[in-house]
Amino acid sequence: RKNSDGLLDAVASLPAADRPLVVFAGPAAGFDVTAEAARRGLGDRARHVGLVSDELARARVREPTMLLAEV
Question: How remote is the C-alpha of 18 from its chain's centroid?
């Protein structure tokens, strides 16, 4: 697991104007991104997009201001 709780906690600790959009891709694996983001007051700053194609993943990886990847 990529410590999704820790990531959302870190984003929630930032001033609201500085919070990046956090996009989770892949299977949900028992983690409800919407509920956990709401619990932390993140509103629409976190979302789960489910499984994405390799092409879309390559395109999107160039967009975020922060990338969390499992290596």
Answer: 15
Is the Cβ–Cβ distance between 62 and 38 less than 8 Å? no
Pairing of strands 46-50, 22-25: parallel
Q: Establish how many alpha carbons lie within 13 A of residue 8's alpha carbon, considering only the half-sphere containing its beta carbon.
A: 23
Q: How far are the Cα atoms of 1, 4, 50, 55 from residue 12, in angstroms, in the given order? A: 19, 12, 22, 30
pLDDT in tens, 10-47: 999 999 999 988 888 888 778 899 999 999 999 889 98
Q: Which contiguous run of DSSP H or E holds residue 51?
A: none
